[in-house]
Amino acid sequence: MKKERRIINSTLELRQEGENERIVGYGATFDKLSEPIWDLFQEKISPGAFKRAIQISDTRSLMNHDPNLILGRKLAQTLELSEDSNGLWYEVMPGTRTYELDLIQSLRRRDISQSSFGFTVLKEEWDESGDMPIRTIVEVEYLYDVGPVTFPAYASSTSGMRSLDTIDNAKIVFEQFKAIRSGNSELEILKRRLELLEQM
Q1: 186-199 and 167-181 are packed helices; what angle lies between their axes, rounded to 10 degrees?
Q2: What is the pTM of this model?
Q3: pLDDT in tens, 49-76
Q4: CA–CA distance, 72 with 74 (Å, rounded to integer)
């Protein structure tokens, strides 16, 4: 599965612990329907979708998904992840590098207030009973990163979850849905996906 990214409008906070400050907030929330993604489909995340991924993923916390701006890492115990009834909760312990201190100031000023996460999907479901197909992410395969973002890559959507990938990626997901809906075999679906990837 292709790696995807989503943005979420949630409250990021700075939490004081002794002399240290932690960045805390939700990287994803459950059962909240997105605005239409590229006018093709809407999306929501099922409770428990991150349970497996939290256990097996060596997730990083990155600023704006930039691997050069790392804030914490699960393996290093500078990033903590958990699920509650609302969604994917994360706490990161930033260091004292310049970009981390700058981020803390931006959070204090509320210049930055959103989070995003990078992931691949293990299990999804589609519902076409309404006016627009709805994709439900049932289980996340791997959680690559979670962290603060400055702004969504595509400002046309005001949803709590927004695609940061190209429109072609959304088309691939939608083409897969249409193939499943039309009763095509798994082999035909894979062939179509390869054709679409070659066009990107």
Answers
A1: 160
A2: 0.74
A3: 999 999 999 999 999 999 999 999 999 9
A4: 7
DSSP string, the chain: ---EEEEE----EEEEETTEEEEEEEEEESS-PPPPBTTTBEEEE-TTTTHHHHHH---EEEETTEEEEEEEETTTTSEEEEE-SSEEEEEE---SSHHHHHHHHHHHHTS--EEEEEEEEEEEEEE-SSSS-EEEEEEEEEEEEEEEESS-S-TT--SSS-B-S-HHHHHHHHHHHHHHHTT--HHHHHHHHHHHHHH-
Among the listed residues 116, 124, 159, the one whose alpha carbon sits nearest the alpha carbon of residue 140: 124
Q: In the chain, where are the structural domains located?
A: 4-164, 166-200
Sheet holding 13-17, edge to edge: 13-17, 20-29, 87-92, 79-83
Q: 10 Å Cβ neighbour count for 117?
A: 29
